[in-house]
Design brief:
- It is a single chain.
- By secondary structure, the protein is mainly alpha-helical.
- Helix content is 71%, strand content 0%.
- It has four helices and no strands.
- The chain has helices at 2-13, 21-43, 51-78, 87-107.
């Protein structure tokens, strides 16, 4: 998440006057998705599931972030538009990750004290 904040600051300050607004918007999309999915990787550690499930989810979110945001960062910095074709691979990883996270949350046991029958 610190890297995402740094990239956001870099885009806002160092790239602001050097890039067209369309490229700055692409950069900010990369930063936003990096922040969201870095946080998602942290959130999975709070789920009451087996450790392998948590590790796989975190790796999926972080790997998808590297592909999605990384391809957009490189697209802007190197002006290599073909890198945009790689970005959806990371997006699919995000979708799969969120679906697996939802499944894990639905299957996790309830926290103590939240079951109405415990009253």
């Amino acid at each position: 998440m610190a890297l995402a904040v740094g990239c956001g600051a870099f885009g806002a300050h160092a790239l602001r006057d050097k890039l067209p607004s369309q490229d700055l918007a692409i950069w900010q999309t990369a930063v936003l998705y990096q922040l969201i999915h870095s946080l998602a990787a942290i959130v999975v550690t709070t789920i009451k599931q087996e450790q392998n499930t948590l590790v796989r989810l975190a790796i999926l979110f972080l790997g998808s972030t590297a592909v999605f945001s990384g391809s957009l960062y490189l697209l802007v910095l190197l002006n290599q538009r073909w890198l945009g074709a790689i970005t959806p691979i990371g997006g699919v990883g995000f979708i799969v990750g969120w679906l697996l996270l939802a499944r894990a949350l639905l299957l996790s046991p309830p926290a103590r004290g939240t079951n109405p029958e415990d009253s």
